[in-house]
Amino acid sequence: MEHIVIIGNGISGVTLARHIRKLSNKRITIVSAETDFFFSRTALMYVYMGHMKFEHTQPYENRFWKKNRIDLKKGYVKTIDTTSKTLHFAEGNTLQYDKLVIATGSKPNKFGWPGQDLEGVMGMYHKQDLDNLEKQAPNKDVCKRAVIVGGGLIGIELAEMLNSRSIPVTFLVRESSFWNGVLPEGESEMINRHIKNHHIDLRLSTNLKEIKADENGKVKSVIIEETGEELECNVVGLTAGVTPNIDFIKDSDIETGRGVKVNRFLETNITDVYAIGDCAEQHEAIGNRRPIEAVWYTGRMMGETLAQTICGNRIEYKPGHWFNSAKFLDIEYQTYGWVFGKKGRPDYEQHFHWKHDKEDICITVAYHKDTKEFLGINTFGIRMRHEIFDRWLTEKRNIDYVMSYLKDANFDPEFYKAYESDILTQYNLEFNTNLTAHKKSWKRIFSKV
Amino acid sequence: MKAIKHIGLVIFLIGLATFTALPLLGTFNLNEADFNTIIKGQNIKSEVFINTIKSDIIGQDFSGMQTLSPKISKAIENANEAHTKNKEWDKKIYTKSSDMAAMIGKKSANGFIPNNKGLMWFLTFGLGIIGALMFILPNVILLGKKGIKNDGIYHESATNRGWIGWMVFIFLVSFYLVLYFASEYATNWTLLVDPISEALSGNPAGHWFVYGFMYCTVMTVMAVRMYIKYRHNIYQVFRTTSVLFFQIVFAFLIPEIMVRLQMPYYDFKNAFPLDYDFFFQWNLKDLINNGGIGIFILVWGIVLTLIVVPVMVYFFGKRWYCSWVCGCGGLAETLGDPYRQHSDKSLFAWKVERYLIHAVLVFVLFMTGMTLYSFFTDSSMILGIKTSTVQSIYSLVIGSIFAGVIGTGFYPIFGNRVWCRFGCPLAAYLGFVQRFKSRFRITTNGGQCISCGNCSTYCEQGIDVRAYAQKGENIVRSSCIGCGICSAVCPRGVLKLENGPEKGRINPTEILLGNDVDLMDLVNQK
Q1: What residues of chain A lie within 8 A of the CB of B487, using their CB?
Q2: Which 208-227 residues of chain A touch chain B by CB within 8 A?
Q3: Beta-bridge partners for A441
Q4: Where are the alpha helices (DSSP H) in A311-411?
Q5: How many Å is the Cα radius of gyration of chain B?
């Protein structure tokens, strides 16, 4: 029986294993050094905040694995010998494979800051980071201040976590406005305000110079690059992005760049070795996507795809329309299609922006300035229906159509105040149009094209 | 603000402590005239009993029900023993000793408590309400900006099965045990609410009135907590208002007022088979003897169960009843909300749930069949089984222990919907309709799920919501009562409760939206 070995028990590896099991009888082993069982990394924050216990982050009951004949092996792979198809573990033992899948995910970026390995400096990515944070910052008496470096999605989550235990947070963000490499100005500014409203000390255009230690080798303070200011703190969170977690294969024959280089079939340069998820790097970016996509659902999709290839139906990884979501403290964010921030915005892309006059609710719709084709939408504080936007993107609808049928796309809970009419009124004013809103229609929502 | 909370907590605890101490306090002294009224009312023919009471109880001071109640039960026991021996069946007393003690207690209570009903009400209910509100209201500010407020739930003793949780458990279980099995100890509580009862129905309060009044009070106070906690979520605000309205108006006020108008006591929203004694002989006779209104209730009760309930479930799902109207649901959604995370999500629990709830449904239907057969044929036995025995077993095991003691008492340990999930026969019936013929579903939003597990954790019915959401599949489960919390706690906007066309409602998928369309077609259309 063919033995498939998957290194990494995150969403990519586990999705792959599940789908291989559905399609075949192959022997499957998942190797992980992090935890015994699969858990949802995105939920670690909720454990620290007391919304859940760690076991709630595990999507499958522990007996699931045995029942589905998926062997779990705890161990740290030190080297891979691709000629003899053998994994060598740090613990000294070995494992033979017929096909190997690397799905080891990411690790937090460290940019060589002095003091970046001190006790009390941590990322927020692994289960071990959560345990470490619980130890270093159990409450505001032990941790009198935390400094977070890097204004991305993990950074704001870490800020929310610490905030939930009333630990004062200083949030250093290199950019001039939060996440403005991705978000258009209006939205980015709204998030800036929202962060400050939560009593988080947000410092924009601010970089870390160094982290200082006390006599015990623990974090004592950080120095800010621009002003030289010293901030006393007990915890430093490094959340300036992530990088593929592939140090252990650098010495093997497998080709790597920043990540493990793969073709569109998720195959590496070595036969029978594949890579999926955050650690995989496409030779060439797919559409507007980045060559390395550290996103939950892309990992899952690569797993879904590769299972087909491994089980004899060799297919390309062809992700559909881009979408994503996040939550910034209390503000939910969803995006469908492409809406660019200032950076990297194509010339043809123009925006329509609507914001509620009091609440933190807004949308930005991107369209092609000549053809008026709908390119994408960002929504804050309004939920939208994935299926509808996916269809409109496929059908290449124009922005007028999208604006007048927006009610079909609303996914807010029942009885919520709907803003489609306000949005359309403003749109009509700005674009000198006279569109009328169409009532929500189940028939349209369910019609498959 | 925190100080107000702490003071409120102390005030609440004083009120609660007074309330808890009351069953063992107070003085009782029965006079002969009152006793004669009871003898007449209960049609007691046992001179043994009458003489014992006269010699041992009448004119004597008793301090605390615990000194009085054993004497009464002993008197009944001795009398019945003597009459059994002499084969004087007509003299035997069939009134339960705790009911007798409650009757005597109510008539004979004297001293401070009955003379200061208003003050005592204030020291118990009053302080409880004021203290609880002082504890709850500062959250408007303390909880900060509107949004999901689940911080620290698994750090707090009260909501993480810590010692406070266990104390609440002991209190609730004891309260229900008193209510169902030792109602004489509720005598002092009934005195506190006598003025309210007399204003409504014209009668002094019994222990069920205490329960009803307390139920409404607790729900109202805890509804304030719901309004604050979920103030960003209008669905929760509407739903809370609805259950509160149906509890206060339909379950509490209307039945009491109907009694005042010489009509049968009836809760118009309480549908059979949750209302399991609707077809009991005494109820049917009572309704039939009550003329127009009785017949109306009889017809309405049948129409409610056979037509209104399923039709509404078809259009809106069982939520219209379970989390918008029902009293049990109402308490679960207010008092029980802090405990919703404790429902067991394992596959094992789901199996237990299906066996148990359907067994109760079968039991209630079987019992009702027997009851109706007995009613129409005027026979008390079927195949050698006494109908009344089956009825008593159901009332005791299901009606009292399961629905009351376990259903509510176990909130802090097993979550707030133990009865609704594992026991309620009406929920089982509604569940069939919801699963097989309904427009209701919880829609999963394409491929947005990140498997975080908030939805499953906070599902009070123990549904592993995530298991569906992470597959991109809609949630169509017979047990879902549509509370909407999964949708509220979802950080990515994945879940939405909706009523839509039945076609496409159940949509099992292997590959989620967002991946290669050809792959989706290939795998999903198999």
Answers
A1: 413
A2: none
A3: none
A4: 386-394, 399-404, 406-409
A5: 26
Q: What is the CATH architecture of A121-240?
A: 3-Layer(bba) Sandwich (3.50)
Interface of A with B in 141-180 (CB under 8 A): 164
Q: Does A320 touch chain B (CB under 8 A)?
A: yes
How many Å lie between the alpha carbon of A328 and the closest alpha carbon of chain B? 9
Cβ-Cβ contacts under 8 Å, A414 against chain B:
235, 484, 496-498
SS3 category, B421: helix
- Interface check for B95 against chain A (CB to CB < 8 A): the answer is no
Partner residue opposite B451 with nearest CB, options A59, A327, A330:
A59
Would you give the distance in Å from CA A223 to the centre of its chain? 29
Class of domain A323-446: alpha beta
> Which backbone phi and psi does A201 adopt, to 5 degrees?
-80, 90
**Cβ contact B491–A412 (<8 Å):** no
* Amino acid at residue number A409: A
The SS3 call for residue A217 is coil
Q: How many CB pairs under 8 A join A and B?
A: 177
Decide if B508 touches A, using CB distance below 8 A.
no
Among candidates B153, B445, B498 on the partner chain, residue whose Cβ is nearest the Cβ of A51: B153
Name beta bridge partners: B474.
Answer: none
Contact B516 A52 (CB under 8 A): no
Whether residue B496 and residue A416 make contact (CB cut-off 8 A), yes or no, is: no
* Closest CA of chain A from B445, distance in Å: 6
Q: Is A441 on the interface with B (CB under 8 A)?
A: no
Question: Phi/psi of residue A119, each to 5°?
Answer: -70, 130
In whole angstroms, give the CA distance from residue A384 to residue A332. 11
Under 8 Å between Cβ of A204 and A175 = yes
User: In chain B, which residues have their Cβ closer than 8 Å to the Cβ of A328?
Assistant: none
Residue of chain B nearest A308, judged by CA positions: B519
Give, for all 449 residues of chain A, the pLDDT tens digit.
Answer: 899 999 999 999 999 999 999 999 999 999 999 999 999 999 999 999 999 999 999 999 999 999 999 999 999 999 999 999 999 999 999 999 999 999 999 999 999 999 999 999 999 999 999 999 999 999 999 999 999 999 999 999 999 999 999 999 999 999 999 999 999 999 999 999 999 999 999 999 999 999 999 999 999 999 999 999 999 999 999 999 999 999 999 999 999 999 999 999 999 999 999 999 999 999 999 999 999 999 999 999 999 999 999 999 999 999 999 999 999 999 999 999 999 999 889 999 999 999 999 999 999 999 999 999 999 999 999 999 999 999 999 999 999 999 999 999 999 999 999 999 999 999 999 999 999 999 999 999 988 65
Task: Supply φ then ψ for residue B444, to 5 degrees.
Answer: -95, 130
SS3 label, residue A372: coil
Can you tell me the distance from the alpha carbon of B471 to that of B468, in angstroms, rounded to the nearest whole number? 5
Helix axes B234-245, B207-229, angle to 10 degrees: 170
CB-based contact B234 A53, cutoff 8 Å: no
Q: Does the domain spanning A3-107+243-310 belong to CATH 3.50.50.60?
A: yes
Return the domain boundaries, chain A. 3-107+243-310, 121-240, 323-446
Do A51 and B445 count as a contact with CB atoms less than 8 A apart?
no
Q: Is the Cβ pair A43, B447 closer than 8 Å?
A: no
- Domain residue spans in chain B? 27-110, 163-438, 440-524
Considering only the top CATH level, what class is B440-524?
alpha beta
**Does an H or E element contain B90, and which?**
none
Verify whether the Cβ–Cβ distance B513 to A387 is below 8 Å. Answer: yes
Whole-complex ipTM: 0.96
Give the torsion sign (CA, B312, B500, A386, A301). positive
Same CATH topology for A3-107+243-310 and A323-446? no
Q: Which of B453, B515, B517 sits opposite A40 (nearest CB)?
A: B453
